From TrEMBL:
Superkingdom classification of source: Bacteria
Stretches for region Disordered: 349-369
Matches recorded under InterPro entries: CoA-transferase_III, CoA-Trfase_fam_III, CoA-Trfase_III_dom3_sf, CoA-Trfase_III_dom_1_sf
Species whose genome carries this gene: Brevundimonas faecalis
Protein name per Swiss-Prot or TrEMBL: Crotonobetainyl-CoA:carnitine CoA-transferase CaiB-like acyl-CoA transferase
Amino acid sequence: MKLEGVKVLDLSLFLPGPMLTLMMADHGADVIKIEPPGEGEPTRHVGYVKNGASVWFRNTHRGKRSLGLNLKTPEGLAAFHALAAEADVIVEAFRPGVADRLGVGYDAVRAYNPGVVYCAISAFGQDGAYRDLPAHDVAVQALAGVVSLNEGQDGKPAMPHMPVADAFSSLAALSGVLMALLRRMTTGQGDYLDVSMYDSTLAWTPNVTGRIFATGQAHEPKDERSWGGAAFYNLYECADGQWVVLGGSELKFAKNLLKALDRPDLVAVAALPPGPDQEPLRAFLRQTFATRTRAEWEDWFKGRDVCFAPVRTLKEAFDDPATAQRGMIALDAEGNEVVGTPLRFREEPARLDPRLPGEPAAPDAVHWR
């Protein structure tokens, strides 16, 4: 596997760091999760439980080993440094400055392991005006301006459906860690990576910053292409209260659908800029989709070259045989669901290890493989 032989120490909790190290473990890295004294990794005890383990913990910590360390004691600190001396990658997600105060920061480790790639994930980065603010995903999304974009037709924002700041920072961290490991092959030197959830969220806005940068004005979400202003990039309710989406604003899709619905005259409206001018087309599509059930529309759209999809529940998505076909859902020996990896190599594919770390081992019980 691609990362076989890579040794990773993970000091992080919750989601961004553990997802980063999970993807590395799936591809062969030896990941040792360092858990704090007491309850350990919080997600061991958060959310729904199946067969004695939380589903969240199972799908972020499978394939890893666990070590319980109190970094505030000389014994715990000594055990950390013994492992860090041989580590290729260290991941932490403390508030800025905490790792250094504990004696496990980059400068302390680099003194005896100059090749280490040290990744710090935080809400707002290691410097800047927001550096010391406490925050989880939704607060970061709010400050980054993207919660305001989750605006319904009532003009009110809704809670985000996905932990965007967590996810983007995790993927940014993975990319940075792999870049640093690649560069180390030439220089022999590691590096320090400062990943901010806030920065990572803003970095993924190029497709929606047009109005801001071009006019200096804030968005009116329901008039914008990505959030309801475009008739062919929108949600529509069906006769049974279920919903469908049209998900492609290219004019060819509008022509294909409107011709099939005997309204080619509305193609000209689909060609107009998103916003109020497209309301006649949106109104027609609302009325049209309300005439059949979601299932009937799914049958009707089969074979038509139109970007269409039913709005499914997450359960429906995981129950779909196509999801298992792609390896994105599997069962372990006890029947527990395991979410797969999106990184699919032809050579040296991932090997998902569904085993969970037990209760954190004592400091002298965990060594590198």
